[in-house]
């Protein structure tokens, strides 16, 4: 397990969140382009939102990557055959696996985003229980190139979740926690702990922390120009301005 470090103070985190709070993924991608980061940070379109809120955009978020890596297990399933298996034995084995081999993000703070690498694993590493726990600890959402389960409950709980596929199986017997607070690979996108993560209906973009302010400056300028053009369209159509123009 890697000891987590926090490169920004709480005040610096809040200041950077303010710079990104209203930005769309497309604005941020344009801001990366402006700063020479073409095709960097653009998470594959196969990772998208579990739900979209067209009224309040509650599926959108910006935060800082709290990274987690899971790997397929090489640990054998040491249980008797089904004909000899009882509930207590299975529950004990399952509990030991969760306790010893199925860790997760630590020190989840306000404005964190849990970013989980689980490449090629058909397991629901993220479910309604752990996702809600991270959310209550301050996480703004979850991003994974692996599987989620309990999706009806996650949607009902309103936890923004960006995922690659739905996976019904549980963790025990299938995969193991490997590390927290390390660089992870989301199917071709490198994510460092503390990088800025922005997500909306267009998907996910990751901004390297060392250029996050420069990217935000360009992205805000680009967004403002877009808002001015769209405001003219609203006026021509006789529509009242909405919060997307603010």
Describe the structure.
Strand 3, helix 4 (128-137) and strand 4 (141-144) form a beta-alpha-beta unit. Helix 2 crosses helix 6 (212-237). The N and C termini lie far apart (43 Å). The protein has helices at residues 10-20, 25-34, 87-101, 128-137, 151-157, 212-237; strands at 48-49, 61-72, 112-117, 141-144, 147-148, 161-163, 165-166, 175-180, 184-186, 189-191, 196-200, 203-207. It has 246 residues and is of the alpha/beta class. The chain is built from six helices and twelve strands. The mean pLDDT is 94. It is elongated, with a radius of gyration of 20 Å. Strands 1, 2, 3, 4, 6, 8, 11 and 12 form an eight-stranded mixed beta sheet that branches.
Task: For this entry, give a set of tags.
246 residues; alpha/beta; eight-stranded mixed sheet; two-stranded parallel ribbon; 32% helix; elongated
Topology:
Blueprint: H1 10-20, H2 25-34, E1 48-49, E2 61-72, H3 87-101, E3 112-117, H4 128-137, E4 141-144, E5 147-148, H5 151-157, E6 161-163, E7 165-166, E8 175-180, E9 184-186, E10 189-191, E11 196-200, E12 203-207, H6 212-237
Parallel strand pairs: 2-3, 3-4, 4-6, 5-7
Antiparallel strand pairs: 1-6, 2-8, 2-11, 9-10, 11-12
Order of helices and strands: HHEEHEHEEHEEEEEEEH
Strand pairing plus helix content: what structural class? alpha/beta
So how many helices? 6
Query: Whole-number average pLDDT?
Result: 94
- Over all CA atoms, what is the radius of gyration? 20 Å
């Amino acid at each position: 397990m890697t000891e987590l470090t926090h490169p920004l103070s709480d005040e610096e985190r809040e200041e950077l969140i303010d710079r990104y709070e209203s930005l769309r993924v497309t604005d941020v991608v344009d801001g990366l382009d402006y700063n020479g980061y073409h095709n960097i940070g653009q998470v594959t379109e196969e990772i998208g939102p579990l739900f979209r809120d067209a009224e309040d955009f509650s599926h959108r978020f910006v935060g800082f990557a709290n990274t987690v890596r899971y790997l397929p297990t090489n640990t054998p399933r040491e249980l008797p055959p089904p004909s000899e298996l009882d509930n207590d034995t299975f529950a004990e084995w399952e509990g030991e696996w969760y306790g010893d081999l199925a860790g997760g993000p630590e020190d989840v703070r306000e404005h964190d985003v849990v970013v989980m690498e689980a490449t090629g694993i058909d397991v629901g590493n993220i479910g309604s229980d752990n996702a809600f726990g991270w959310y209550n600890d301050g996480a703004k959402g979850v991003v994974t190139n692996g599987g989620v389960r309990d999706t009806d409950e996650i949607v009902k709980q309103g936890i923004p979740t960006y995922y690659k596929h739905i996976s019904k199986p549980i963790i025990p017997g299938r995969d193991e926690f490997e590390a927290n607070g390390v660089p992870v690979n989301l199917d071709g996108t490198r994510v460092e702990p503390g990088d800025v993560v922005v997500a909306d209906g267009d998907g996910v973009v990751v901004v390297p922390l060392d250029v996050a302010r420069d990217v935000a400056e360009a992205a805000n300028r680009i967004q403002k120009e877009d808002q001015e053009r769209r405001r003219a369209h609203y006026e021509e159509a006789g529509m009242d301005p909405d919060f997307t123009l603010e």
